[in-house]
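Thread: fe (ii) ion complex, take 2
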Amino acid sequence: MPDPPTNRRDFLQHTSIAGAGLLVPAFALANPQQPSPKAKDAEDISPAEDLMREHGVLNRILLIYDDHLRMLAAKQTFDGSILVSAADVIRHFIEEYHEKLEEDFLFPRFRKAGKLVSLVDTLLAQHKAGRRLTAQIRELAALPTLKYVSDADKLADTLRAFLRMYRPHEAREDTVLFPAFRSIVSAHEYDALGDDFEKKEDELFGDDGFFKVVDQVAELEKKLGIYDLAQFTPK
Ligand SMILES: [Fe+2]
Ligand SMILES: [Fe+2]
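Output below.
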């Protein structure tokens, strides 16, 4: 466990990255041979539920980004490896998997149906912009120290830009794109896509891959001290 953030004024001398990047191999190590009691539930979900619970993972990373913005604003020290790991979840689970599902399975069907084409264009442009922001976040968070004020400012600006874009992005997908998707494919195709999504998830992250990623995000939350949900209930 890293030391909790402190209020030292010299917050720029921080960001030890010991252990940075350890998250990625954990995906690769997922063992597809191991049966799990959760596997059956995971197989039965619809494409929309699948994509929306992936947004839940995205939201939990956004909360981790929020917490880092708070620490940057308060000039607190923090362990940069947590932010590196969070950006790696975005890269591997959201960008290379979730957004790829949207780009390969949803967007072309909307274009073919001539529906919500302008929305799809914007969502695709935002996926591309998101990848650029993630590369910057990862690069800045991995610096052994955020030696210069300009680096800390740039990290804060980049985190802010990511949050500003992704909250409306995912909200629009949840409330407009995903509900409309059901109406442009047949019931049979819709069910089959749910199976395809799960198969792809298992291929990339191992059996029960979604739950493994959730567990990894929970570990990051615990390190930051934001895991305990009850702390957010107003007294
Ligand atoms: Fe998207
Ligand atoms: Fe999405």
